[in-house]
Write a structure and sequence with these properties.
With 362 residues, this protein is an all-alpha fold. The chain has one domain. The chain is built from 17 helices and two strands. The N terminus is likely disordered. This is Inositolphosphotransferase Aur1/Ipt1 domain-containing protein.
Length: 362
């Protein structure tokens, strides 16, 4: 899906036409009112008011995913009688209310579409992150059978020797520490991409990113409820000397949360250190692919994104503690989300009698 392009104002076309044809025989050009120059901001706001933007359904889809995730989150909290810190919940609710007000006010009554879209995108993204994290943690209370045996055997079946791979990374500490920085950069990348796309006026890419992010993070968290896994590091029991050569917490950073919410008598959810525990499928793989996709059309940024996210993808095994099969399933999840986003774009364009968006037609 290409970025939004700013069209030449209508006044320029009128001026060029009058130069070619000369003054009107009915009225001189001096008698005619000067054509009003419409700024791109005002034009985008008018289109938003009329609901003519082709990414409307990606925007609505993002909110629907967040609402559905909230419903499932509420059910899990009620089902297992899990408490959320009241202060955290109040602060988060206040932040969401502020961002949604910005989104609505500057999208419907003020000509500031950049601010409106940015506020809405941040709200939908944060909402989905929090809901997915709570789902992945509280869902562990079901104590469904672990699928580590299945995932480990799947890796062996395709010839992957994870213990040897991890030992190799442990023997290259500089590379491992670089991979750790890359692996932990996903939130920073996302925080930079949202305002970048909004300020560039690429609202189609912005809402595609938000929708795909929201859908994949919620689906991945839901998968982890019914098919939980401790991860490859816990499954293969790497020697302590190997773990000591890797960055702190590599491959096992999530295990304390995993055991706490799966086995503690009465766990409590706190937003201060909210951390999901999704092993299968790999959500970092989804992040890599959606980040690269969001930067297509910006040559210099795309090149940087490709190189850096190649490191992120590699890091999912030695730093994230994933099985290799997790990466493949994460890629399939991203493809499914992109297909749904494209379908929404085609459906909206068809209903409006508009040209099919490039991303939807791809």
């Amino acid at each position: 899906m290409s970025g939004s392009r700013v069209e030449a104002p209508a006044g320029m076309a009128v001026g060029m036409l009058s130069q070619l044809l000369g003054p009107s025989r009915i009225a001189s050009s001096a008698d005619l009112p000067a054509p009003r120059r419409v700024s791109p901001e005002a034009k985008a706001a008018a289109e938003a008011l009329q609901g003519t933007h082709p990414y409307k359904w990606s925007m609505l889809g993002s909110w629907l995913v967040a609402l559905a995730a909230s419903g499932f989150t509420g059910f899990l909290l009620w089902r297992f009688r899990i408490a959320i810190d009241a202060r955290d919940l109040a602060l988060f609710s206040g932040m969401m209310a502020f961002l949604i007000i910005v989104h609505v006010v500057y999208g419907r009554w003020r000509a500031a579409p950049t601010l409106s879209h940015l506020g809405g995108a941040i709200a939908a993204t944060c909402w989905s992150i929090v809901a997915a994290a709570v789902i992945s943690l509280v869902g562990l209370r079901y104590k469904f059978p672990l699928i580590d045996d299945v995932l480990g055997n799947a890796d062996r079946a395709v010839g992957v020797d994870l213990p040897s791979m991890i030992r190799w990374f442990a023997d290259h500490p500089l590379l491992s520490h670089l991979l750790s920085v890359a692996y932990d950069s996903w939130l920073l990348q996302l925080a930079a991409l949202l305002p970048f796309l909004a300020m560039m006026g690429r609202f189609d890419k912005l809402w595609q990113l938000v929708f795909v992010f929201s859908l994949t993070v919620v689906v991945a968290a839901t998968f982890s409820v019914f098919w939980p896994a401790r991860g490859a590091f816990a499954y293969f029991h790497h020697p302590i000397e190997v773990l000591e050569q890797l960055p702190d917490g590599a491959g096992i950073y999530h295990l304390a949360k995993f055991e706490y919410f799966r086995n503690a008598l009465s766990p409590n959810v706190s937003f201060e250190n909210l951390q999901g525990v999704v092993t299968f499928p790999s959500f970092h793989t989804c992040l890599v692919l959606m980040t690269i996709c969001a930067t297509t059309g910006t040559r210099w940024l795309l090149a940087v994104t490709l190189i850096w996210n190649a490191l992120v993808l590699i890091a999912t095994v030695p730093i994230g503690g994933h099985y290799v099969i997790d990466l493949s399933c994460g890629g399939l999840l991203w493809l499914a989300a992109m297909a749904i986003e494209a379908m929404l774009g085609r459906s909206y364009a068809t209903m409006r009698g508009m040209p099919v968006p490039e991303a939807a037609s791809a």
